[in-house]
Structures are given as structure tokens and as C-alpha cells.
Amino acid sequence: xxxxxxxxxxxxxxxxxxxxxxxxxxxxxxxxxxxxxxxxxxxxxxxxxxxxxxxxxxxxxxxxxxxxxxxxxxxxxxxxxxxxxxxxxxxxxxxxxxxxxxxxxxxxxxxxxxxxxxxxxxxxxxxxxxxxxxxxxxxxxxxxxxxxxxxxxxxxxxxxxxxxxxxxxxxxxxxxxxxxxxxxxxxxxxxxxxxxxxxxxxxxxxxxxxxxxxxxxxxxxxxxxxxxxxxxxxxxxxxxxxxxxxxxxxxxxxxxxxxxxxxxxxxxxxxxxxxxxxxxxxxxxxxxxxxxxxxxxxxxxxxxxxxxxxxxxxxxxxxxxxxxxxxxxxxxxxxxxxxxxxxxxxxxxxxxxxxxxxxxxxxxx
Length: 365
Fold this sequence. Notes:
Oligomer: single chain
Number of helices: 12
Catalytic activity: sphinganine + NADP(+) = 3-oxosphinganine + NADPH + H(+)
GO cellular component, one term: endoplasmic reticulum membrane
InterPro entries: KDSR-like, NAD(P)-bd_dom_sf, SDR_fam
Number of strands: 7
Shape: globular
Radius of gyration: 21 Å
Main location: endoplasmic reticulum
Strand order of the largest sheet: 3-2-1-4-5-6-7
Order of helices and strands: HHEHEHEHEHEHEHHHEHH
Subcellular location: Endoplasmic reticulum membrane
């Protein structure tokens, strides 16, 4: 993997050209300056911080979408891969693609585990099965991708029930897996010393954990909660210096996938209107950029230029990828948000005036 400036920033520059057409001139000028700064700073990152060849990677939510694409690409890099999901039929189809992509077919190993991430205490069983399959060794990398989204207005009849379901899958599914694998990795008998090759725990959040939008009440809080857990664990693993673990959190935007098709069935029309200028990405593209960010050693793993901007505007006490760059970018983001929020709120008010009271507008089933 090439970690040069061009490898990590060219996709962002392409997105910048697309996004800038809908931005005002002051915002576009600020963003262009930040993009140039990112390109310059990217020249200093060359080391692969997450090598996978010969190592074992476990991914939840890997029967479709981004998780499936990530599993295939990690197989292409020489990893042994365990994919986890509920549907055995889709798991078998995905595993065939993962196996076919192997860099070293004679030595790499692949399997699947059927599990429902929303079930209480599912993760301990999954990790035990993974360890047994892996010759008594735990996976070296665990990537929690499983998730769902049920967009609707907060005043809709089923919004709280949807929020509970989203929290079970998106937050508790990842929280339980992280606890199960950390109890294994951080056990005294598994100490490698501070210079040992670190394990990697990867969460998958959303750009909505950086910038909330109307219509995602049942979903957005689950990703904010996941970010809070990731921040906490990124500090907590330092309490075990002889068991090195790196924590990461990925922030995808819109991904064209079966999950996206499902969420559009309940998504309010005003949400669709506000999202219309956001470029949708394929699962392969998002997975490729996420893996590049992990290999570059990022904690906050952005997969789009817009996501990179949003991260620096709301970092608080979170770990930084680059203290200098993130701080400088953070100075400018409030100026951009002034224009963006003003425009979005104006659109929402105008939409309500034209379409009528939200209670009287047709609901998606």
C-alpha cells in the first residue's frame, strides 16, 4: 500500500471538486486551502502501522456491504479472515469471494461464524469459536462493522422502538465484541511486552457522529455512543503497557449497499433533500480508504474529504491523528459550519412551509 500524499488525498480532492459546486465562495476557498495543507502533511506518513499478511482478522457485519469488501481486500493482502453475520447463506457466498481473493491461497485460512450481534453476550461465544479455529490464538485484528440505520422523525410513532433496535445492533453489538476481545488480549498470560506487535480494535461509526442531521434520531446517538466508547478505550488500553493494543474508529458517509436500500424505505423526504449533494461511495471504495487510513496509523479514520473536515471541528478530547494539522483545521471549521448550518436550517423551514406540518405529511412504511 502506498501511503504517499497522492494515495491518501487524491480521492479527497476529487470529492472537493464535487462538493465545492454547492458551497459559497468563502467556504470553498477555505476548504481548498485546508486540502492543500492535508496534501503537504501527507508526505510524512510512509510506515504501514497495521500489517495483515499472515495475521488473523475477524470482521462483524461482513456478509454484505463495506464489511464484505473489507474482508475481500484484507484477503488480497494476505490475511486469514473470519467473517461474522447472521445469515448463513450470505456468509457462505461472501466467504467464497474472500477465499477467491487470497494473496497466498496455499497458506491463508478462512471461515465464518453465524451470530446475531444484538443478542446479549454473543461476543464471548464468537471469540471462543474463533480462538479454537485459530489454533488456540485470538484474532490479531477485530473490526466491528455490523450496523443498521432506521431513519425517521423523532415524533414518528415507532421512533423509540427503532432507536432501541439501532442501539442494540450498532452500539451494544460493538461494545460486547470489544469487551470480549480486550479481555483476551489484555490478559496477563498474553503479554508480549511494550515492543510487541500491537493488536488492533476497529470500530465503525458514521459521519453522523460528527454532524447530526434531521431524520436520524434513532440512529445518530448510537454512533455518538460508539465514538465515546472508542475514545475511552483508546486511553484505557494504555493501562496495559505490556499488552499493546491500538484502537481506531472509522467514519464512513453514504455507502451504496443493501443497508442503504433498507434505510431509504423509512428515510424522511427532508433528509433525502439535505443529503442530495453528498457523494455516495461504493463499499469497495470505502473499505479501501478505511484500510489505507488504518495502515497509516490513524485513530480517526476518515474515508472522504468531507469527513476529514468534520472530524477536526468536533474532536474535543479525542486522540488526534496529527496535532498540528488537526488544530489548524479546527480553527476554520466553525466558519464553514456558519454557512452550512444556516443553509440547512433555511431549507428545513422552507420545506415545512411548502409541504405542510410534518404530522400531516405522508409517512414511509
